[in-house]
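Bench log, entry 3. Co-assembly request; chain sequences pasted below exactly as received.
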Amino acid sequence: MKHSVCIFFFVTLLFLQSYLTYGQESSVFIHHVVKSDENVSQISKFYNVPEDSIRSWNSFDSNFRILPGMKLKIRKQLIASNQLFIKDKLASDTNPVVLSDKSDSLKNVQSSDFKVSASGNDYLPLLSESVVADNKQSFYEIFLHFYSKANYLIKTILFLNLFFLASVISMLIVILNRRLKDSYIDFRRSKCQDRYRDFITDWLYEEHTSFVPESLLLELRDWVNRDVFTSELLSLHANLTGDSADKLVELFQLAGLKKYSIRKASHSSWNVKAKGFRELAQMKIKEESKLISKYLNSGNEVLRIEAQMAWIQLNPNDPLSFCDDPEVNLTEWGLLNSLVALKKIDAVPDFRRWLSSSNKSVALFALKMSGVFKQFDNIDLVTHRLDDIDLDIRHEAICALGKMAVPSPGNGLRQLFLTEGSENKTEIIRSLIMMSDSSNIPFFEEVLLTETEISLRILSARGLVSLDSVGEDRVNSLYKEGDPVLKTIIIHAKDERI
Amino acid sequence: MYELIKILNFLIENGIFVYAIAIFISYIVMAILSGTEMIRYMRKNSFVDYSAIISSPYAPPVTILAPAYNEGNTIVENIRSLLSIHYSDFEVIVINDGSKDDSLEKIIAHYQLEKVDFMVNYVIPTKPVRGVYKSTNKAYSKLLVIDKENGGKADSLNAGINISSKKYFAGIDVDCILEEDAILKMIKPILEDSQNRVIATGGVIRIANSCKVKDGKIVEINLPKNLIARFQVLEYTRAFLMGRMAWSRLNGLLLISGAFGVFDREIVVKAGGYDRNTVGEDMELIVRMRRYMIENELKYKIVYIPDPLCWTEVPDKVRVLSRQRNRWTRGTMETLFKHMTLFLNPKYGNLGMLGHPYWFFFEWLAPIIETIGIFYFILVLGMGNPDWPFFFLLLGFTYLFAVTYSAWAIIFEEFTFARYRRKRDVFRLLVISLLEPLFYHPLNVWFALRGNYDYLIGNISWGKMEKKGFTDKKKITK
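Structure output for the full assembly:
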């Protein structure tokens, strides 16, 4: 959000640097090292500046005697305005003067006599270029000159500036290109979409030969056409069953789309591969199950889920065989998807096989599914998992028993209530309510009267209310005897609108 | 004295240099992380068939909590929008936070509500609930309205959490418009992770100014006509697509926008619910939830998804924007200082070593340092002849960096969701990216400074937010 703040930081940085160097006066002044037998008068003549100015800049009076090796400050601007004079002087002077600056202008003036003493700000021309410019330079020449004289920092900044500028322009071009490309593809799609839809509908509902026209096959060699045709076919197929669906599978094969789906499923990119799995599964290409099976326990969760969904659809006789793998990893999201896939094949396997699995995710899945599909034969195994050390397994077992709504495990659940945490306690009461068993009345009553957690008390009151007249009578009598809190809880529980 | 100034200058110069380099690097790293995360996300979700799962009865139940205060002009429409969400098991709890207008009367009349005998369990302390309402019309069976004494947004959300019965809740601003599949997309990361407990998910907030709304849904997406709002489009795009995605990848998110986020109710309750004494309750809650998980040695994650799921109206007047940003600054400061124990504390992992220090240095301190820089600049301007070529070179660098960074955000948007379909909208955004550092950013700095000042003098007001609402826009569409 505040990245633009950097603009100001660098502005500040720049001026701090400027200030530092100006503070040291090294950017305003250059240093003249006094040679033997040199006096102020000679120096003033050399630079064509008044003697008094030299004394003033160096804070000494006329009585002060300069000594060899001393550094005298000479104001640059004055040098700049006098540099042609200096140049002439240098050409004729055999007594070298050590001037300190690296500026371009002075470079023209000196050769080895000038050296840098400006601390920290030695990368820019400090004197006016125009003073020494013999002829006018182009911007490109000036830039090149500037670049060649610049230090690494300047060069880096220059490079980055150009990079940023180029990036923005490139991004503009990329956006334009993408928009144009999208428009073109949309145009092509719109051109063939209706035609393909009509063709597929005709294939479904009209008498047809068992081959696809050569012209269409040729068209489908193009990826855009193929993509449109495949998606039209798949979306229609998703809403059909029986013969109609089989006809579309036949069309898929005759149109030669199978090989493209297999190609996708073998692609190196996982997202293309996953798409291929989906197409193969929907088009019931069973012979490719082996290819898919390699990814049933892939580390890539998307690929894994797609492979598992495809496997379920391609192997209706044993759709969840991949759960036998003790290393398989199932997520809640995968479970939702698996349920969708199981619905598609209209097959419900017996989950008993995985109820005792040591793999937690598989056991959770089997428990959930046993409840969802009310597999009463599995009650014993589900009840057995109420003793599991894993909290999540116990939770799912409680939920599954609740969904089955069979009273037999009620006693086990009531016993478990005493040792469980809040979340599982809530689930136990919910499950007991689902069982509609009057033997739960004392339990509900006890929870209602003794529990400290309001939500559990409300649920227990609901449990009593749900047990028709017997429970309701008990609730009414508790209401009469109860304190205001209990009364409010009972009123809440009895309100069917909540 | 001169030596002292010299040393001071040296320290400031180098300090700012290091700071500037750090901020630049952090942005570049975030852009790279966001980019990779976005690519991964887009690939991963390119073939998810939400329609098959959206109606699944096995999707976890979710409560939508929508606090409302004086929203009488738009409340009926807003609730309709919330009720039209596509999800199998959800309830909408609207919390009327002691509105002084006719919000409650309007809801009661329109949704045929009647008071029910609800036993409120104050798991998290809140202002007293005056009544709980349910509809007599089965069509609105998912709606529950709480009428309570005024206590602020955090208090309202806490009241909603107390009454909510579902495992997850989505906290939203009542005037937001959610995409139909918003809840499912937000729940997905929670269901996907079997290794960590995902305790909260956040989604991208988009700007609905100038968009056309019909029946509580966005039917046409436009770039705002108002310049202030348009600047915010760029700002939001950058912040959400390039900032929070990176933090999500690092599992270092410190903020899930109060406008829309899904939370694990159990963890929120255990962490103590929303803090009523801060104006940055959204950020504060996330920090406290994270602390709770770390201090209890529980594996967790907070995830951000880049889908544009929630559309909201942003301030289009400088005055209103000023109040909002002022509040955001105060909220940030309150949270950072309240949880100062996290600062560079390795015990808290990324939260302590990355998240908290980042917010401290680059979110809170940035406008302050920037202002110091400007003043210093003015000071030194009068003390010497500036090195103008170098000045312009650096100015160009920082300006171009800012523009490039924004342009990258636009590219991210273009290659992912491309919600602005008109070519001219994208180019307008690019133009905005050229203007933003010059005009909009200085405004934000000023608002942040005011926020700092107000924090120091103890101003705790929320600040009145004026919104036009979508009803007007709906009329435009007719």
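Confidence is low (pLDDT under 50) at residues 1-5, 14-27, 93-135 of chain A. The longest helix of chain A spans residues 152-205.
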